[in-house]
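Narrative summary of target 7.
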Amino acid sequence: MARLLHWTRNVLIALVALVALGAGTIWAMSERILRRQWRLPAVEIVVPGTPEAVANGRHFATTRGCTDCHGDRLQGGAFFDEPGIARLVAPNLAQLAREMSPAELERSIRHGVRRDGTTVRGMPSDSFYATTDADLGDLIAYLRSVEPASDALPETEVRYMGRLGLATGKYRLAPQILATSPRRRETLSPGDAISFGRYIAYTTCVECHGEKLMGDPRSIEPSPSLAIVASYEPAEFARLMKDGITATGKSPKLMGGVARARFAHLTTEEVDALYQYLSLLADPSAADRL
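Modeled conformation, tokenized:
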């Protein structure tokens, strides 16, 4: 019996050591990812000082969901907090916009890279990468027009399961996604509804529906391929954008909330252009326009 107890104790000690070693390895791997320096060239962005620019920037911020994470006053706050995974805290964007240069803001918004070169944790830059210089300048003009709040914010914290996801590649940060997934940024052609619709799609829909808009089964609420839009009538699609109600009368929880908070503010011209573009996704002969 003494030998059995001795053997059992040694096995338990070995198992604890292995678990500790594994946990330490995962922590080190994830910390290396979080501390990685991303070197990107500076892109100078012109920030207009006109009321029209501020109004367009406010529209862009609303329809692309900036206030979803940063709050109605852009004051920041925790937008994700799950035990064992992570607490992600959006910064006080109104304050940061006054402290950072347009080039630094461009890196943070389009690439998810902070001033020190590390990653902005939780920033969906893959959705903002396609933003034009003009819209980005207007967005910064709007952010700087908002009087900063003085609310104290908690710290972002990546917990063990979140670190395991980073170490194993299950979770990827924005710079990692952009480094392996080609993105394009195009100059919009005045009067070209398809080009305009494509721009809206790639700054609005990729966050949930994937980089090719063909759906993402890994999202919180699995999203369908947007080729389904070809089966919608224009009025049905407009209702989907405004109220989050599908052609079959359903109201998916995620889409319903996003539609009412963001997409309901899209103009009729934007909704029509988005419909025209997404309707082409199911048409093989339209590949050259996608």
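Residues 193-289 form a domain with the Cytochrome Bc1 Complex; Chain D, domain 2 fold (CATH 1.10.760.10).
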